[in-house]
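Sample A.
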Amino acid sequence: MMRATRRTVLAIGLAAPFVARAQAQPRAVPLGGSIPMTGAAAETGLNVLHGYQAAVKRIEEMGGIQAGGQTYRFELRLVDDASDPSRAVTLIQRQVDEQVPLFLGSFGSNIVLPTCAITERARRPMVQAGGGSDQIFTQGRRYVFGVFPRATRQFETTTNFFKSLDPKPQTFAILYTNDPFSRFSAEGARTSLTGAGFQVTDFVQLPAVVTDVTTVLARIRETRPDVLIATTHDEHSLLITRQMISSDTNVKLAYFGLGPQTAAYRQAIGRYADSILTASYWASNAPYQCPYFGSAKGFEEYYNRNFQRPLAYHMASGAACILAFAEALKAAGGPDAAKMRDALAAMDFLCFYGRIKFTPQGDGDAELMGPLVAQVQGGRLEIVGPPAAATARPIWPAPPWNQRG
């Protein structure tokens, strides 16, 4: 089994499979970038990293990528940014100066934003699964691509889920932190919900670093919204959930944009996690076919055979970034940065992750790459929306905290 290392530099060049002597060995194409292997975002950052590793390993096992009469393999040159944007900027600039041609993204818009500015100036393509802020995609950049829709377009499928409930919820409270991704996600959720006729009773900005939400939760107990939406990152979602439990702040449904997808969150909350909603950009039972892994289920089986870290959709998203680069390499005929950028912009590729197609601004097509709605049931994530992808019926309304488990 492979485990992610927490060393500062991670360079993965897996041994190439046997090739006849007369045939040239695959040529290594470096994929640079940083990822949070330590620090506040490490839990999800390591998930994305494992997805990168899984796809690189699989491509090696398949004998590499044929492009322009040459065989290529990918070599990961990822550095630990320790969840620190300033550190990430320094490390990425160093890799640009070292002529690394292609880049994978970090996790968190606060890191992807400044680092993609560096790769943009250098005209080096970046494909990433960790930054959804609208600012990444609305400032005229041409070399950064994301396998998620931008933040303000990510809530449409969730709004449709709420519309499908019987009886429909009426009132919503939205909490967000003062950072680009969380803020844009909250604004997108409010626009989507109000456009569908729902009432947003509270729209509350929290500090960028949250340590206490007791005052906000007192307000929630007063206004008694049907649904609490928190467009927060993992660590803040965990804190809010714990303080909701300890203060007996009950709502009919709670939705956290990030957090419940991870085994660490569900283990930390235990039985109280049941009924909590979240977003999931991929499910192993999705009906997708793939030339690399066979199917969505095939990716799950391959990952579990080779890695010990519990599988979450972040691994699938990370692997999708690698496959996007692989298909772009084929279309470009080689690792020319400008040609690969054009190939990414024109991509329309079906794989285990779904259909990968980017908007002209570089984010994932909202209709094709928007999230599924997942709910924790019995400690597991079940897909509850849209109906065509559902693996379970939603628990609605959720029982109060003292009746869970």
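Sample B, a different protein:
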Amino acid sequence: MFELDVQSRRPIYEQLMDNFKELMINEVLQEHNQLPSIRILAQELEINPNTIQKAYKQLESDGYIYTLPGKGNFVAPPESIKNPLKEEKIRNELTKVLSEAIYIGIDKHEIYKLVKDISPLAKEGDS
């Protein structure tokens, strides 16, 4: 379920966060689904529980999950993640990546197709 590279220079908690975000984006984890407990996940992944705790705290800070005391951590609804600074950062990153893609010769129709393939919402928006 999780791909962690202990040889990577990227911290394990960041890799874990990316894995959770990917599961949420691909709707494997849907809103209000409960996440595994820190203790159980630490045992399964054979990593320090403090690493899981750090990832969960950052995911909560970013709005991806919420905590119910005594019950655990849950996936937040996508609309709760809305953050103007985060949106601006993503727009800037997309602009940079798309500009580079066009510069190296990737056809704009291929880029449009990628966007359609990524998001069912993009397909609906074309009508």
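Observation for Sample B: The chain has a mean pLDDT of 87.
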